Amino acid sequence: MSRGELDALERQLEARDPDVRLMIQIRDDVPGAFEAMVARYQDRLVGVLFHVVGNQEEAEDLSQDVFLRVYKARKGYRPKAKFSTWLFTIANNLAMNHARDKGRKPAASLGVGGAADESQAGAPAFAVPGREKTASAQMRQVELSEVVREAVAVLGEDQKMAVLLSKFEEMSYAEIGQVMNRSPAAVKSLLARARNELRERLEPYLEADAPAPKPRAAGG
Q1: Closest CA to 155 of 114, 85, 99, 207
Q2: What is the pLDDT of residue 214?
Q3: Tens digits of per-residue pLDDT, 168-190?
Q4: Quick check: 40 pLDDT over 60?
Q5: In terms of pLDDT, which residue wins out, 210 or 18?
Q6: Residue 169 three-state SS
């Protein structure tokens, strides 16, 4: 891509994406810009990274590494995609390297009933919609969220990251593909396999939790 094409792409992305504008301010050393970016993305990064590495402290440490790399790279920043795509590409690479260095499945320590563990404190749970608002129903929803968390924890690393980016960041197949260096078709296939695996793992639990059918009225 020529310098002129890069300049045109930068102008387009800057006009469309406020986070690109913020990163350009960071590149230009505008006071407070870096702090604003950290405040905007800290919780989002930790939320995704926690579900990948399975430990709150490690997720927070990794998020700090992401921000450090962003700051060090600021002077050479030339936007070629949405800022969030670039940021989560860095996060994905760090998380995958971390998982390989640990020599274990990233979230193997997660399990039903583990929400009280300090390693999970403050981490976002997977939301499971429910109709009832009673105390027992709310407790049941928390329990189901933990079951979902456990099911996600045993997915492959690539599957897990794709699911998290799709759910938490609402990224498209193309955006997830940019983060994970895959084609949109490959991401679609990856997510389909992950959803099928989640469905298989959760189906017995959901069937056991389903209400009994109402009896039909006489003569109906």
Answers
A1: 99
A2: 56
A3: 889 999 999 999 999 999 999 99
A4: yes
A5: 18
A6: coil
CA triplet 139, 142, 146: central angle to 5 degrees?
140
CB 63 within 8 A of CB 47: no
3-state secondary structure of 126: coil
128-210 shares the fold of 1-107 = no
Write the DSSP symbol of residue 129.
Answer: -
Query: What does residue 76 show for φ and ψ, rounded to 5 degrees?
Result: -100, 10
| Cα–Cα distance measured from residue 87 to residue 173, given in angstroms and rounded to the nearest whole number | 16
Instruction: Name the CATH code of domain 1-107 (choices 1.10.1740.10, 3.40.1000.10, 3.40.190.10, 1.10.490.10).
Output: 1.10.1740.10
Inter-CA distances, 159 with 51, 101, 119, 141, 191, Å: 12, 19, 22, 24, 6
pLDDT at 92: 93
128-210 belongs to which CATH class?
Answer: mainly alpha
Give the side-chain half-sphere CA count within 13 A for 176.
24
pTM equals 0.69
The letter for the amino acid at 28 is D
What are the sequence ranges of the domains in the chain? 1-107, 128-210
Higher-confidence residue of 153 and 32: namely 32
What is the CB neighbour count within 10 angstroms for residue 214? 6
141: confidence class by pLDDT, cuts 50, 70, 90: very low
Tokens of 140: 């049941």
